[in-house]
Specification:
The structure holds two protein chains of two kinds. By secondary structure, chain A is mostly helical. Helices cover 73% and strands 3% of the residues of chain A. Chain A starts with a helix and ends in a 14-residue tail after the last helix. In chain B, the strands form two sheets. Chain B has a two-stranded antiparallel ribbon with strand order 1-4. Chain B has 14 helices and four strands. In chain B, helix 2 packs across helix 12 and helix 8 crosses helix 10 (198-224). Classes of the chains: A mainly alpha, B mainly alpha.
C-alpha cells in the first residue's frame, strides 16, 4: 500500500509536468490550428536558459521567472517569423516546420552546451519529507505542486479573465472575434508566448528531477498521448490526462514491469521487457484514437472519416 | 510517359550502374546511400504526395525491412530476402495504416508517431528476431549463390532497385488505383461520391508504399551489415519527410533530388568542417543546416527543389545562351506544371 502511494506520488509529480507541456500544445492548437511538435524544444531551451541564468549567479526564483519571460518572447517570435507566413500551408508542411524548429533548437543547444548531461543547480532545498510513511524529496513535492498550481491558475485565467475570454473568442471563431474588435493575431502570438513560457517552466522542473540534457526535448513527444487522451481541444482534459498518464507510467515501471518480467522469466526465454513505461502511453494513444478520437474530454467534430 | 522519357531513364540507370561499378569504395557507398534513400523517398511520396496520408513511421518501417532481410538472409534465402523483407514491411505498413481508415490528417499523423514508438520498442525487446539493443548482425546478401561483398556491387544493386521502384511509381499512377489515390488525397467525400472504396484505396497505398520501404530497409541492412534499434528512430522518419519536402511533394524526380540532397548535405558539411578545421561543432552544424533548410524551404519554396529548378531552368539556359553568343538555343516549355 505504501509502495503504491509512493508510486502514485512520483507519477503525479511527473504527470503534472506532462500536463504543463500538453496544456501548451492544446492552447496553440486551439488558437492557431497548429499542432506544435516543437513544444519539447521549448521545454529543453527553457531548462538550458534557466541553467545558464542560475549558474551566472541569479537566484533560482528570479532565474526561473526571467527564463519564462525569455521563452515567452521566443514563442511569440516563432509564431510571427515562422508560422505566420505559413497560414495557408497544408497540414504536413506546418507539422514539418515545427519539427524543423525542434531540430534547429536541439542543434543550437548542442553547439552551445555540448552533448553531455549536466547536473542541474538545485532550485529547491534537498532532503525529503515523510507523510504517512511515504518519503518524498522536496524536488518531487515542489515540482508537483508548482506545475499543478500553475496549470490551475492557467485554466482559471482562461475562464475568468477578460483576456482569457478574448483568447477563447479568437480560438473559437477568428472572424467573429475580429468583428467585435479583438486583435486576433496578437491573441495568437500571446497564446504562443504563454505556451512557450509554460513549456519552459515544465522543462526546468523536469531538469531538476532528471538532470539537464538534450533528451529533455523528448517530452514534447510524450505529450502527444496526453493530449489525445484528454482531447486535442480540451485544456482541462490535458491536465487530467497528464496526471493519469504520469501515474500510469509510474505504476508500469514500478509494478507491472517486475511482475511481467517474473512471469516471462518463469515461462519463456525472454529476460526483459525493456522500457515498457515508455511505450504504454503510445499503446493507449492508438487505442484511444480508434475508440474515441475526440479524447475523453474533447468535443465531437474532430477530423474523422 | 513518353517513350523518350523511358529511354532516358533506362540510359540514366545503366550509366549509374556502370559508374557505380567503376568508382572507388567511398563513392560507391555514396551512390548506394542516395539510391536507397531515393527508394524510401519515392515510397513515402506515394503515401504522402499521392494519397495524402502523413506518416511519421517511415524510420521504423525501414527498420522492419532491415530486420526482416537480416533474418531471411541469414536463414539462406538468397536474393529472395529482398522481396520477403518488402512483403513483411508491406504487412506492417498495412497494420499502421489501419487507423487511417477512421482517422484523417493530424490525428493519423499522431497515430503513426505512436506506431514508430511501439515498433522501436519491439526492436529492442523481441530478442529472438532482433537481438535486442546490441543489434542483429546480417550476413552479406547472396545473389544466386555468390555473396555480394563490395560496396560497388551493392551500389549497382541499389540503383537497379531504384529504377524498378521508379517504374512502378510511374506505372501505378497511370492505373485506376493510382488515380483513386489522387482523388482520396483531394477529398475523401468526393472519392466516395465517385464510387471509390476509400478504405481499400488507402490500404493499397500503405501496402505499395510499405513494400518499397521494406526493400530500402533491406538494402540498408545488407549495406551496413547490422540492424540496431538506434538506427531506425524518429529522426530517420523526419529525415525522409524532409527529403520529399525539400525535393517536392508529389514529384517523383523531386523525391530523388531531395534524397540526394539530404544524404549528401551532411557529407558536404563534414568536408567543409574538416577543411575549416572545426570538427567539434560539426554535428551541431549539420543538424542546424538541416533544420534551417526544412524551415526555409517550407516558407519560401513549399513545392521543393523541383519547382525551384523548373523556375530557374529558362534563366540558366538563357544565361548559357548569352555566354555562348547565341540568341536562342532552347525554348522553355510553357509553364504548365505537371503533377502526378
Amino acid at each position: 500500500m505504501t509502495y503504491a502511494l509512493q508510486l502514485a506520488v512520483a507519477g503525479i509529480a511527473v504527470g503534472s509536468v506532462y500536463a504543463l507541456i500538453a496544456l501548451g500544445i492544446v492552447l496553440i492548437y486551439k488558437c492557431s490550428g497548429v499542432v506544435n511538435f516543437a513544444q519539447g524544444a521549448y521545454a529543453m531551451v527553457g531548462a538550458y536558459v534557466t541553467y545558464f541564468l542560475v549558474t551566472m549567479g541569479l537566484s533560482p526564483l528570479i532565474g526561473v521567472i526571467v527564463s519564462m519571460a525569455i521563452m515567452a518572447g521566443l514563442g511569440a517570435l516563432t509564431e510571427r517569423a515562422i508560422l505566420r507566413p505559413m497560414l495557408k500551408a497544408p497540414v504536413v508542411a506546418v507539422m514539418m516546420v515545427t519539427l524543423g524548429l525542434l531540430i534547429v533548437s536541439q542543434a543550437i543547444c548542442l553547439a552551445i552546451w555540448g552533448p553531455d548531461q549536466r547536473a542541474f543547480p538545485a532550485l529547491f532545498p534537498s532532503g525529503a519529507v515523510e507523510i504517512a510513511g511515504i518519503f518524498m524529496t522536496y524536488n518531487y513535492v515542489a515540482t508537483g505542486i508548482l506545475s499543478a498550481l500553475l496549470s490551475v491558475c492557467f485554466l482559471a485565467f482562461y475562464r475568468y479573465t477578460l483576456l482569457g475570454l478574448a483568447q477563447r473568442c479568437a480560438a473559437d471563431n477568428s472572424r467573429a472575434a475580429l468583428a467585435i474588435g479583438i486583435h486576433v493575431s496578437n491573441q495568437v502570438s500571446l497564446a504562443w508566448a504563454m505556451s512557450a513560457a509554460l513549456a519552459g517552466l515544465g522543462g526546468t522542473l523536469l531538469a531538476t528531477l532528471n538532470g539537464l540534457s538534450l533528451g529533455l526535448a523528448d517530452i514534447g513527444l510524450v505529450a502527444f498521448p496526453v493530449i489525445v487522451l484528454g482531447g486535442l481541444s480540451s485544456l482541462g482534459g490535458a491536465l487530467i490526462a497528464g496526471l493519469v498518464l504520469g501515474i500510469l507510467q509510474s505504476f508500469t515501471d514500478g509494478w507491472l514491469t517486475p511482475v511481467l518480467e517474473d512471469f516471462l522469466r518463469a515461462h519463456t526465454s525472454i529476460y526483459s521487457v525493456g522500457a515498457l513505461q515508455q511505450v504504454v502511453p503510445y499503446a493507449l494513444l492508438v487505442l484511444m484514437l480508434l475508440l474515441r478520437p475526440e479524447g475523453l474530454f474533447g468535443r465531437g467534430g474532430t477530423e474523422r472519416v | 510517359m513518353k517513350t523518350r522519357h523511358l529511354l532516358l531513364a533506362v540510359a540514366a540507370a545503366l550509366v549509374a550502374i556502370v559508374v557505380s561499378l567503376l568508382v572507388g569504395r567511398f563513392q560507391a557507398y555514396l551512390i548506394g546511400a542516395v539510391a536507397v534513400a531515393s527508394i524510401g523517398a519515392l515510397a513515402l511520396n506515394l503515401l504522402i504526395g499521392a494519397c495524402g496520408q502523413i506518416s511519421l513511421a517511415q524510420g521504423a518501417l525501414l527498420g522492419v525491412g532491415a530486420y526482416a532481410a537480416g533474418n531471411f538472409g541469414n536463414a539462406g534465402c538468397d536474393f529472395l530476402a529482398l522481396p520477403a523483407a518488402g512483403l513483411t514491411a508491406a504487412l506492417i505498413s498495412a497494420l499502421i495504416g489501419l487507423p487511417a481508415l477512421r482517422l484523417r490528417g493530424l490525428y493519423f499523423a499522431i497515430a503513426t508517431l505512436a506506431a514508430q514508438a511501439i515498433l522501436e520498442y519491439l526492436f529492442k525487446t523481441v530478442e529472438p528476431l532482433t537481438k535486442g539493443i546490441s543489434g542483429l548482425v546480417i550476413k552479406p546478401m547472396t545473389l544466386l549463390g555468390t555473396p555480394l561483398v563490395t560496396d560497388q556491387a551493392y551500389a549497382a544493386l541499389s540503383v537497379f532497385a531504384l529504377f524498378v521502384t521508379w517504374l512502378f511509381m510511374v506505372w501505378i499512377m497511370r492505373t485506376n488505383i493510382g488515380r483513386a489515390f489522387l482523388v482520396v488525397r483531394e477529398s475523401e467525400i468526393v472519392a466516395r461520391g465517385m464510387g471509390i472504396d476509400v478504405a481499400r484505396t488507402k490500404l493499397w497505398a500503405f501496402v505499395a508504399s510499405g513494400f518499397f520501404v521494406g526493400i530500402a530497409g533491406a538494402l540498408t541492412g545488407f549495406i551496413t551489415r547490422l540492424a540496431n534499434p538506434e538506427a531506425f528512430g524518429l529522426q530517420l522518419s523526419v529525415d525522409y519527410v524532409a527529403m520529399i519536402i525539400v525535393g517536392g511533394i508529389g514529384s517523383w524526380g523531386g523525391s530523388i533530388i531531395g534524397a540526394a540532397f539530404v544524404v549528401l548535405l551532411p557529407e558536404l558539411i563534414q568536408r567543409l568542417g574538416e577543411f575549416l578545421n572545426v570538427p567539434n561543432v560539426l554535428s551541431a552544424m549539420r543538424e542546424l543546416a538541416f533544420g534551417l533548410l526544412i524551415i526555409l524551404f517550407l516558407i519560401f519554396e513549399p513545392r521543393g527543389l523541383v519547382a525551384l529548378l523548373r523556375r530557374l531552368a529558362p534563366r540558366i539556359v538563357a544565361a548559357a545562351a548569352v555566354l555562348l553568343g547565341r540568341k536562342e538555343i532552347w525554348k522553355p516549355q510553357s509553364a504548365s506544371r505537371r503533377r502526378l
